[in-house]
Amino acid sequence: FMYHAHVGVQLDRGLYGPLIVEPRNEPLAYDGEYTLMLDDWRDGVDDHADHGTPAGEGVAQPDLDPTDVVSFGGRAYPLLLINGRPPDDPPVLQARPGDRLRLRVMNIAADTGFRFAVAGHRLTVTHSDGMPVEPVTVDALRLGMGERYDVLVDAVQPGGAWQVGVEPEGRAGWGRAVLRYSGSGSSGPPAVAERPVELDGRLLQYADLLAVEPLQLPAGAPDRLYDLTLTGTQIGGQSYPDANPLPVTEGEWVRITMRNTSSKWHPMHLHGHHFQVLAPGGRGPVKDTVAVPARGGEVTFDFLAGNPGRWLFHCHNHHHMEDGMLRLVEYVRR
């Protein structure tokens, strides 16, 4: 999990951190672990988040078909960080040949979706948003803001230093760490801008993820349905703080369908609950954040209303949230 501010530009200024809940009995075997927090960072910002559509919002790179461009945001950030460190001073991950590392990769950025890969190595995904999935091996991850993945990396190389690269979806930029094998002597790190070819390899998709522990839904049909259109400023045609709450009742099976009519992907996050992404076979991943593709993309999820209170449901692009993409899920009596 992650903890972070939801007010003004406190997230942009670094008010966040990881929160790791260890199981009583760890089912995974590995030799070491690292937590990697991917961030966009702006210096000299004022006390208010940007509002309104920035210049170039929704405009794709001129040499690409706009429908092929994945973009989560449109703000300019001078630095992309891993664990608070810039590309010219990267964090270093240590491994010995034959080791297996667990990487907990988290996107805490305000406005940037990332693609993540490790040069010369593959990634075996074991958890999504803290929930176990059937292991699946890929070359690269795509993380919307707020999403987290646990991956295992086998140190299959004989030695050396290998780039751990992140690049933003839909715009220029670069962040990195370095995976260094012990006993590599004086071998230098990769060049700052050296890009892992794995970033263009097999990319993890939600369809690859099968829940180890699917939600135990009752027989029949959902008790409550919501069909919500997403724009850059509204959820279901309403903007916070004027939006009506979305009522649910304790014990209900709730299904939410989201359709994105905007030019940006929206990573949608529900507080206080995990939900299951609807997929053939009923074993879609159990998550708390899911990215809804732009230009007509659609995602449906189910959750069991078992945590009474008033909970935020919002786009995890901080600027979209500030512009109104936030609703309250409110428990009510029958």
Structure description:
- This protein folds into two domains: 207 residues, Cupredoxins -  blue copper proteins (Immunoglobulin-like); 108 residues, Immunoglobulin-like (Sandwich).
- It starts with a strand and ends with a strand.
- The longest helix is centred in the C-terminal third of the chain and has 5 residues.
- It is globular.
- About 5% of the residues have low confidence.
- With 334 residues, the chain is an all-beta fold.
- The protein contains one helix and 23 strands.
In summary, what is this structure?
Helices cover 1% and strands 38% of the residues. The protein is an all-beta fold.
The radius of gyration computed from the alpha-carbon positions, rounded to a whole number of angstroms, is: 20 Å
The CATH class of the largest domain is identified as: Mainly Beta
**CATH topology-level fold name of the largest domain:** Immunoglobulin-like
Physical arrangement of strands within the biggest beta sheet: 4-3-6-11-8-9
Helical percentage: under 10%
What's the order of the H and E elements?
A: EEEEEEEEEEEEEEEEEEEEEEHE
Q: Any guess at the CATH architecture of the largest domain?
A: Sandwich
Determine the mean pLDDT: 90
> Counting H and I runs of at least 4 residues, what is the number of helices?
1
Question: Which spans of ≥5 residues are poorly predicted at pLDDT below 50?
Answer: 53-68
Q: Which structural class best describes the helix and strand composition? A: mainly beta
What is the strand tally?
23
CATH superfamily of the largest domain: Cupredoxins -  blue copper proteins
Distance between the termini: 32 Å
